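Action item from last meeting closed. Structure (711 res):
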């Protein structure tokens, strides 16, 4: 049961009457499948932009099976034809509500590169075919649902809705858009991993409560006309501290004579300096408070106010101390309740141990779904990330308090893979999650954790209150690879290496037993300017981890390599920073086949930096220092070219840039030069001995697509 007595256990609700039908072999996608199950209707229908894969790494499966465990009959409409409402009527009218999701990824990031070019593929679609979901899928699907059944409650979720819950900068249109709630005309928006909110909403609707009255559920947002009278409004619509003010103008002053200026100057000199007023963050009051953010129209027109609103939003993310937020959009308000309380271990175990087939829906036949093939033999052991990287959406979506599965539950899933998957060859492709080594890592004090408002537990250094012991993972790894029939357990999730070095025994266990020749880690940059805007550690920690990695690889008699990821064109990055990164790559004999260019995803702190030029990691004022931002396509191409310094196609551009930067000394044929003075006769230059070629994350796509789960 939950350790929080004020929170209802996720699986303690009285089951809905339709539990008598029992769990479906796979959730139905057609009326024929419903008939075979004996259903006359669905209680809940989920519309998703992904192909339906009944696997716990896919959002629609987790949501569907969790609701099914509550007794509801759940149907799936996957990748419908959005050009008309017909496909949205395939399963009939749901008894309770429609749930709309873009899928495991934001539909715009899924469909476009960081250079705004359309992709031709889609890892979440059978056959890897692109174009099977619309741009801004949540909005389009919601509009079609309203056309099909206007009076059915509409609930939107997934990472696309989650990151657009307030006014947000939209990279693809290069403007600030209003909350997705208004464009989707939804009754409720669920953000984050929303099982707790979703289950409560479903049971309340099943009990006959109108959706318009469900306004107190954590992790939800909705549109309202007026604020509840019991709330005290904390006004945060301005960014400038009250300070010295000009004296009021005398309405009777004679402005026609030559003495006017002298009189005004004398009056101004007589005014005493006014001390700044300190606005209390939490006035003493028993009345609950709601923070009023700058209105949509304000942040749309004022980048500094946008950065200010972003800072406030990210400070109100700890579920144990966050306050509700409200933002005006014209004559209506968008209200955001505080984040949901994280799931306890036994609740998360039950979510992941529902009767998933771990297969794509049978209607897809033998069609290949790349995202599924990547993760079908992986096991998710946790949720959340306390790293707080400004360019990443994991913390914003899943929270920074780690939610852990039990060791027993994880091992049961490994055994289930072994026993049920015909394609299993003895290799577990990953035991991980958003971050490989944060399982069971948490604050030493629940009291401190409940009061903390820091955006990261590991930046600028590891918090003294963080228990960094990763020895429980050693036990888990040993137990997993001891399972009969398991030949190898790989760790493919992103590794937080600055945390890993705090437990050398963990690094040794990882390197000696769980690396498949290459281990991917993400320094992201070498220079302090961009690193400080990313909230990433310096290269000293990388060097420390690298020394451990090489030592333990040598002891194991294995030839293994670290594969570092780097980002081009991140806010705070100058051309000189990319040049220095390129020199580091060359000194260390690294060559990137593909590179990651910063992708401004909605609501990310780094996106606020990109749009405003301000740094929301610090207090924002109109006079705050601005930072370099890489907005021009030509400069973004240059930063990408520095990462691919070895590609002859980039040499003319790099030579021109180096001359403009006063660094023509880096043009030459020596080992210390970055690019040669002339183009080679052949298209590809010779690769120096000992150089390692590696592929980095490409254009902002997640390194493991299914890890960007959506609810």
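Sequence:
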């Amino acid at each position: 049961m939950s350790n929080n007595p004020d929170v209802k256990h996720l699986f303690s609700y009285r089951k809905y009457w339709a539990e008598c039908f029992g769990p479906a072999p796979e959730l139905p996608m057609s009326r024929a499948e419903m008939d075979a199950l004996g259903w006359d209707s669905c209680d809940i229908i989920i519309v998703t932009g992904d192909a339906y894969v009944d696997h716990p790494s896919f959002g629609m499966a987790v949501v569907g099976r969790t609701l099914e465990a509550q007794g509801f009959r759940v149907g799936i409409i996957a990748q419908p034809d959005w050009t008309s409402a017909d496909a949205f009527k395939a399963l009939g009218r749901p008894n309770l509500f429609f749930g709309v999701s873009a899928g495991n990824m934001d539909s715009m990031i899924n469909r476009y590169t960081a250079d705004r070019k359309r992709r031709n593929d889609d890892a979440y679609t059978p056959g890897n075919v692109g174009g099977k979901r619309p741009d801004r899928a949540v909005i389009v699907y919601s509009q079609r649902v309203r056309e099909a059944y206007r009076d059915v409650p509409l609930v939107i979720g997934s990472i696309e809705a989650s990151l657009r819950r307030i006014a947000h900068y939209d990279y693809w249109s290069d403007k600030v858009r209003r909350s997705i709630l208004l464009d989707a005309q939804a009754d409720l928006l669920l953000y984050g991993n929303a099982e707790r909110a979703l289950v409560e909403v479903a049971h309340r609707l099943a009990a006959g409560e109108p959706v318009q009255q469900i306004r107190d559920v954590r992790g939800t947002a909705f549109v309202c006309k007026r604020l509840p009278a019991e709330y005290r409004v904390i006004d945060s619509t301005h960014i400038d501290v009250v300070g010295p003010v000009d004296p009021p103008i005398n309405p009777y002053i004679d402005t026609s004579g030559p003495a006017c200026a002298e009189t005004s100057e004398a009056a101004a000199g007589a005014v005493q300096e006014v001390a700044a007023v300190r606005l209390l963050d939490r006035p003493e009051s028993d009345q609950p408070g709601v923070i009023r953010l700058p209105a949509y129209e304000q942040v749309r027109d004022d980048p500094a106010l946008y950065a200010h609103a972003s800072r406030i939003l990210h400070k109100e993310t700890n579920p144990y101390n966050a306050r509700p937020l409200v933002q005006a959009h014209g004559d209506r308000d968008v209200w955001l309740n505080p984040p949901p309380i994280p799931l306890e271990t036994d609740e998360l175990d039950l979510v992941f141990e529902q009767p998933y087939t771990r297969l794509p829906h049978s209607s897809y036949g033998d069609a290949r779904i790349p995202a599924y093939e990547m993760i079908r033999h992986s096991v998710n052991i946790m949720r959340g990330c306390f790293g707080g990287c400004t360019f990443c959406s994991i913390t914003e979506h899943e929270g920074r308090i780690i939610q852990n599965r039990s060791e027993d539950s994880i091992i049961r899933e490994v055994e289930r893979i072994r026993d049920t998957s015909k394609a299993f060859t003895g290799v577990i492709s990953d035991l991980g999650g958003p971050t490989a080594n944060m399982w069971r890592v948490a604050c030493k004090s629940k009291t401190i954790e409940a009061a903390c408002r820091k955006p990261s537990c590991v930046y600028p250094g590891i918090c003294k209150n963080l228990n960094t012991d990763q020895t429980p993972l050693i036990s888990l790894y040993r137990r997993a690879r001891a399972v009969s029939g398991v030949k190898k357990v790989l760790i493919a999730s992103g590794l937080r290496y600055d945390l890993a070095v705090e437990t050398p025994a963990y690094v040794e266990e990882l390197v000696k037993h769980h690396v498949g020749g290459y281990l991917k880690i993400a320094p992201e940059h070498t220079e302090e300017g961009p690193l400080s805007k990313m909230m990433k550690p310096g290269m000293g920690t990388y060097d420390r981890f690298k020394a451990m990695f090489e030592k333990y690889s040598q002891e194991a008699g294995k030839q293994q390599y670290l594969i570092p990821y780097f980002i081009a064109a991140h806010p705070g990055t100058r051309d000189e920073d990319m040049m220095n990164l390129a020199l580091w790559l060359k000194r260390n004999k690294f060559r990137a086949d593909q590179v990651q260019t910063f992708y401004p995803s909605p609501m990310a702190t780094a996106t606020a930096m990109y749009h405003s030029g301000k740094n929301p990691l610090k207090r924002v004022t109109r006079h705050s220092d601005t930072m370099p931002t890489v907005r021009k396509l030509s400069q973004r191409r240059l930063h990408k070219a520095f990462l691919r310094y070895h590609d002859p196609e980039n040499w003319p551009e790099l030579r021109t840039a180096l001359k403009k930067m006063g660094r023509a000394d880096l043009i030459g044929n020596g080992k210390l030069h970055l690019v040669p003075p002339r183009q080679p006769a052949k298209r590809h230059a010779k690769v120096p001995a000992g150089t390692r070629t590696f592929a980095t994350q490409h254009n902002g796509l997640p390194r493991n697509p299914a890890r960007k789960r959506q609810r």
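Note appended to the action item: The longest strand covers residues 561-568.
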